[in-house]
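Dear support,

We are seeing what looks like truncated structure output for some complexes. This example has three components. We would appreciate it if you could run it in full and send us the complete token output so we can diff it against ours.
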Amino acid sequence: MRDNGARTLSGELLDWYDHNARALPWRVGPAARAAGVRPDPYAVWLSEIMLQQTTVVAVKPYFEAFTRRWPTVADLAAAEDADVMAAWAGLGYYARARNLLKCARVVAAEHGGIFPADHAELLKLPGIGPYTAAAIASIAFDIPATVLDGNVERVMARLHDEHTPLPAAKPILMDHAARLTPDERPGDHAQAVMDLGATICTPKNPACGLCPWRTACAAWEAGTHRELPKKTPKKAKPTRHGVAYLARRVDGAWLLETRPESGLLGGMLGWPGTEWVDLTAPLPGTEPPIRAEWRTLPEEARHTFTHFHLRLTLRTALLPMDREPERGAFVLPQDFSPADLPTLMRKAFDLARPR
DNA sequence: AAGTCGTGGGT
DNA sequence: TACCCAAGACT
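Here is the complete output from our reference environment:
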């Protein structure tokens, strides 16, 4: 049961949201929503997938490009896998793109191209977990589901001065968030809490003077807002190394391969190469993907992934027309764009390209 | 149920 | 420089 205090808090937050909502390409703002405009569930879903662990600034151009190229879920379901992966290149967490296509095809084939207006049904779809199911249910369909993302966790930890470290604190914070979720305007409420976390209740230097919940905030009262939420310390990243082979044919074609569906950069285009092993182990010796005179570049490509650093030794070669690769396939210049590569592979290209 | 899975910007 | 963080999901 939601008490009067909770109802008041949500009301104060909605008043704040009515005047301070961020204008976002995928959002129906509070005024339009009050006038009866409904969000497009496809746009809500697409934006929520893109926004998983990704900043608004990074998502904007990708969202625009995707909706321009694939205006409906049926359009996306009919797209080629390689086109979608290339369009996602640079955004990261590529399993999202693979699941995006799977989900679009399930919605098109099993739901008549209509996203189910049901939290449990949404949760069954590929790439949609607890947060995203609640976000789509509330934002697209005004179902009173509770979103718990990084913003909401931080806001709840401070509002209730909760010192239990994440992720152990999640159930507690979810309980707090659920109590605040109103039956009226649950979609605007969900977006309002996240906007509050993104613009006022920020990780560093929160703007408590502008916060509609300041007088109710237990951490503000205790003076602990700057140290919350607590988090369990992370492990240090090890460093790995490997070799990549960048072969250019005399007609300008590059030798590329599509990486395996699962694992790091799964399903993405990349340069053939060795496994990546811990720096304490010797550099793996793998046969080059094609017979050639290989030259090792003086500079290695450096890149940091979620859980390790990578130093990639780059070897290049210029090839005649009549030589068959043992791995990968040549991609003609008119079919190749560096923008289709994940960032590591694009870094390697930038170091190896003729200039 | 910890580990896996990207990237860019801010500090 | 090194670390943190961002509308998490999947295994």
